[in-house]
Each structure stands twice: as C-alpha cells, then as structure tokens.
Amino acid sequence: MTRLLLVRHGQTVGNVNQILQGQDPGELNDEGRRQAAEVRDKLTDEHIDVFFSSDLKRAIDTCAIIAEPHHMDVKTTALLRERDWGDFTGMFIPDLKDKVWPANVETIEQMKDRASRFMQMLRRDYPDQTVLAVGHGIINKALQSVYHNRPMHEVEKMTNAEIRELIL
C-alpha cells in the first residue's frame, strides 16, 4: 500500500488578498514560507520516498522547502493543479457572489478524474512507498472525495500547509 502525505501549499499573496488564483502560478508570502518550513521541520525525520507537487509555483516552492532536508528533487504534475476557474481566475472572491459561472470553469467531475488518475499512478508506480504531494485547496478536496467516496462538500477544506495522510 502507498502512503500519501497530502499537503496544501503555504499561504500566498493571493490568499491574503482574496484573489481566486486557480491555475495562476501564485507567490508564497512570508507566512507561507514559514508554514512550509514548519512542515519541513515536522517531517525532517520522516522517511519519504518521493516528493510530488502541482506544477504551479506556489506548490512547487512549498514542496521544495519541505524536501530540503531529504535532498531530493520535486516531481511536478499537472494532475495536482488547482481548479481551473476560467474567466473567474484573478478576480476578487467577494465580487463573485451571485455571479453566473462562466462555461470555462473546470467541473467537479473533471477535477475528480484528475484526482483519480493521480492516485492510480501512485498505486501503480510507488507501491509500498511514502509519497508527499503538495496540492491546492480544491484539488486536495477532490483527492479526498475520491479516496473516501464522499461528495466534495462533505470533505473539510485543508488550511494552508496542513498535512493529511491517506493510505492507498
């Protein structure tokens, strides 16, 4: 069985400013770098076989900080990208209340499909290994939704730099 340590990226400038980042790169702020360092310190003595990250900058930077004491490269994958918010990307979240969703927003089904493919890849390529993966708030919910076979609204959102363990 594969052990997945699922982490949400550290706090970003966009998180603080309530900007819907979606698949924009994003930038960790000082607090986000501190949060990633806290996860790094917590997991320094933990055996981790591979480090994965979304291919978005905020997740890569978080994962690189966590991986430092392990002296391992970070593998990136688009499967862990945050939800594509289409035309809503970059907008101020409070301004979106009561707005009609654009047709180019990634669906829940599409996200859950990506999540399922990521977990299938881990089971196939990393059996009996510990994998740390840094994703984003909503794709991490999709991963847990698929894992627990529960609707996404029943999965508690992860806070920045939170760790959850899944045994695949």
Structural commentary:
- It contains 5 helices and 5 strands.
- It is of the alpha/beta class.
- The longest helix has 18 residues, at 108-125.
- It is globular, with a radius of gyration of 15 Å.
- The mean pLDDT is 97.
Residue share in helix: 25-40%
pLDDT < 50 runs, ≥5 residues: none
- Please state the structural category: alpha/beta
Strand proportion: 15-25%
List the helices and strands and how they pair.
Blueprint: E1 3-8, H1 13-16, H2 30-43, E2 50-54, H3 57-67, E3 74-77, H4 108-125, E4 130-135, H5 137-148, E5 163-167
Parallel strand pairs: 1-4, 2-3, 2-4
Antiparallel strand pairs: 1-5
Main attributes of the structure:
168 residues, alpha/beta, 35% helix
Quickly describe the structure.
By secondary structure, this protein is of the alpha/beta class. It is built from five helices and five strands, in the order βααβαβαβαβ.
